[in-house]
C-alpha cells in the first residue's frame, strides 16, 4: 500500500464546502480519548446503469432453467457454466451464480454472502393485474436512470431533499463526538443517498482526499497560495454566511491534517488488491482505511457509499457484463477479507443496489431498462448462504412480467430490503419511520437476513 501525503488526502468539492455552513461544527477536532466499544458500519455499493441481476443469480432446476433460457435467448448463460450454490431455504429449487462470480460463490458457501431476490422501487405492493389499472400507484418515470437512482437513494417517493443514508446519518452523528463530519462518506463523488438537512456529507477520492490544500511538491507558488488563502480565512466578516464559510474551510483544512496524518501512518494491509486493476476494489480499500483509523477518531457509527458504473448494457452485454461481474466478485471478496484483517467482519455490513434491473428479453445485443432486480448482502453479521424474498417467474408474459417484454415486477421493496440493516445498525423503531417514511406501506417484518 503506497503512502499518502497528508496534504493529498482530502477532496471536498465546491458544492460540499458551500453547503457546510448549514452544519453545526461545535465539536473540537481532537483525537478520541477512548476508543469506541461498539463500532458498526454500513457500505452501500451502487451499480450505476442498472445491473442485469437475472444473469447474476440464475436458476439451475430443469423447469426454471428452461424458462430462463427461453426468455433470455442469446443472453442466457449455459447451464453447464453456472456456479452452483445451495441456498438453505430454496424450497427444492436449484440456483447458481454467473461463471464470473467464483469469489462470491465461495463467500455464499461460507455463509458470509446472501442474495435479496427481486427487489426494487415500489410505492406499495403491487401485482400484474393491479398494474393494468392506470390509477395504481407506481414509481414516477419508472424506467428512467436518474429518477430511479434518486428514488433508491431518497427512499421516499415524495421527498427529493434528503437521502435515506443522510437521514440515518442524522441520527448517528451524535455518536461520533470528535469527528461528526466523518459519519457519512462517499468515495469518488458525492451521493444523494447521503444528502442531509442537518449534517454535511463528504467525498473521498479512491486514493484519499486529493490535494485539498493544493500544495504541490517543488512548486513554491502553491505554498504561497495556501498561505494567502489561510490569511483570508482568518479575517472577520460582517456577512454571517461568509464568516461561517471561512470557519468551515479552516476546520476542513485542519481535518485534512489530522485525519490525513493518521491514514498516512497506517501499516500496509496484508490483504492485497486484485492483480488486474479494479477501481471498485480501490474504492473499498479507501473505506477500509477509514475503518482502520476508527479508534483514533472515536467513530462509533459510519455509513459509506461506493459507486461503480458501466451497467447500462444496451449492447455488447455478453462481453461487457462478465467483465463487470468479475470486478464485483473480486472487489467484494477483497473487501470482506480486508474487514477480517481489520477484525471488523462482524461490524461491517455491505449491500448492493442499482436503479433497476434489465429486460429478460434481448434487444439483439443487450438489454433495456426494466424494474425488479437481485441484490447482494455481505458481512459476518449477515445470515448468508441463503436467498431472501421471492424468486419471480422468468416467463415472458408470465405473472411477474409487467409489460410482457421481460420487465419483472419487484416483490420486495427497497424499504423492506433496507429495514433489517437499520435494525442491525441499532436504529430505533421510531427513527426508522423517518429514515424510511414509506415503510408503512409494506410488511416491515417480511425480510430478516441479519444475525
What does this structure look like?
By secondary structure, the chain is α/β, with parallel strands linked by helices. Helices cover 33% and strands 13% of the residues. The protein contains 13 helices and 12 strands. The strands form 2 sheets. Strands 1, 5, 6, 7, 8, 9, 10, 11 and 12 form a 9-stranded mixed β-sheet that branches. The longest helix is centred in the last third of the chain and has 26 residues, at 317-342. The chain is globular, with a radius of gyration of 23 Å. The two termini are 33 Å apart.
Give the helix/strand layout.
Blueprint: H1 14-19, E1 40-47, E2 57-59, H2 62-72, E3 83-85, E4 95-97, H3 102-109, E5 113-120, H4 128-131, H5 145-154, H6 164-172, E6 184-187, E7 202-204, H7 220-234, H8 240-264, H9 279-292, H10 294-297, E8 301-308, H11 317-342, E9 348-354, E10 373-378, E11 387-388, E12 412-413, H12 414-424, H13 429-435
Parallel strand pairs: 1-8, 1-9, 5-11, 5-12, 6-7, 6-8
Antiparallel strand pairs: 2-4, 3-4, 5-10, 9-10
Helix pairs in contact: 3-11, 6-13, 7-8, 9-11
Amino acid at each position: 500500500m503506497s503512502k499518502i501525503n497528508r496534504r493529498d488526502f482530502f477532496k471536498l468539492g465546491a458544492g460540499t464546502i458551500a453547503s457546510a455552513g448549514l452544519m453545526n461544527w461545535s465539536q473540537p477536532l481532537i483525537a478520541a480519548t477512548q476508543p469506541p466499544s461498539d463500532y458498526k458500519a454500513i457500505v452501500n455499493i451502487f451499480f450505476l446503469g442498472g445491473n442485469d441481476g437475472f444473469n447474476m443469480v440464475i436458476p439451475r432446476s430443469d423447469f426454471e432453467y428452461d424458462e430462463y433460457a427461453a426468455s433470455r435467448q442469446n443472453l442466457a448463460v449455459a447451464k453447464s457454466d453456472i456456479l452452483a450454490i445451495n441456498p438453505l431455504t430454496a424450497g427444492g429449487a436449484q440456483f447458481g451464480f454467473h461463471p464470473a462470480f467464483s469469489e462470491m460463490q465461495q463467500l455464499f458457501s461460507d455463509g458470509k454472502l446472501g442474495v435479496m431476490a427481486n427487489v426494487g422501487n415500489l410505492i406499495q405492493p403491487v401485482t400484474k393485474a393491479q398494474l393494468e389499472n392506470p390509477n395504481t400507484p407506481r414509481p414516477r418515470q419508472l424506467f428512467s436512470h436518474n429518477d430511479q437512482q434518486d428514488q433508491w437513494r431518497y427512499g421516499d417517493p415524495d421527498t427529493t431533499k434528503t437521502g435515506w443514508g443522510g437521514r440515518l446519518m442524522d441520527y448517528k452523528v451524535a455518536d461520533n463526538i470528535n469527528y461528526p463530519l466523518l459519519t457519512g462518506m462517499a468515495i469518488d463523488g458525492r451521493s444523494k443517498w447521503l444528502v442531509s438537512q442537518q449534517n454535511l456529507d463528504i467525498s473521498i477520492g479512491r486514493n484519499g482526499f486529493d490535494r485539498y490544500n493544493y500544495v504541490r511538491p517543488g512548486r513554491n507558488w502553491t505554498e504561497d497560495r495556501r498561505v494567502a488563502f489561510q490569511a483570508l480565512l482568518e479575517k472577520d466578516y460582517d456577512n454571517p454566511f461568509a464568516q461561517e464559510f471561512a470557519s468551515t474551510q479552516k476546520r476542513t483544512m485542519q481535518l485534512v491534517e489530522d485525519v490525513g496524518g493518521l491514514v498516512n501512518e497506517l501499516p500496509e494491509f496484508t490483504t492485497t488488491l486484485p492483480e488486474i486493476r479494479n477501481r471498485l476494489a480501490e474504492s473499498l480499500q479507501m473505506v477500509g482505511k477509514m475503518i482502520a483509523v476508527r479508534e483514533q477518531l472515536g467513530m462509533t457509527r459510519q455509513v459509506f457509499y461506493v459507486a461503480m458504473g458501466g451497467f447500462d448494457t444496451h449492447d455488447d452485454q455478453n462481453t461487457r457484463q462478465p467483465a463487470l461481474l468479475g470486478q464485483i466478485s473480486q472487489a467484494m471478496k477483497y473487501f470482506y477479507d480486508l474487514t477480517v484483517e481489520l477484525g471488523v467482519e462482524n461490524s461491517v455490513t455491505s449491500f448492493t443496489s442499482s436503479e433497476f434491473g434489465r429486460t429478460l428479453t434481448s434487444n439483439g445485443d443487450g438489454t433495456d431498462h426494466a424494474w425488479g432486480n437481485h441484490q447482494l448482502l455481505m458481512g459476518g453479521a449477515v445470515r448468508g448462504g441463503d436467498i431472501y424474498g421471492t424468486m419471480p417467474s422468468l416467463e415472458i408474459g408470465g405473472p411477474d412480467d409487467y409489460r410482457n417484454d421481460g420487465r419483472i415486477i419487484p416483490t420486495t421493496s427497497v424499504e423492506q430490503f433496507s429495514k433489517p440493516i437499520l435494525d442491525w445498525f441499532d436504529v430505533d423503531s421510531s427513527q426508522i419511520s423517518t429514515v424510511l417514511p414509506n415503510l408503512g406501506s409494506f410488511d416491515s417484518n417480511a425480510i430478516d437476513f441479519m444475525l
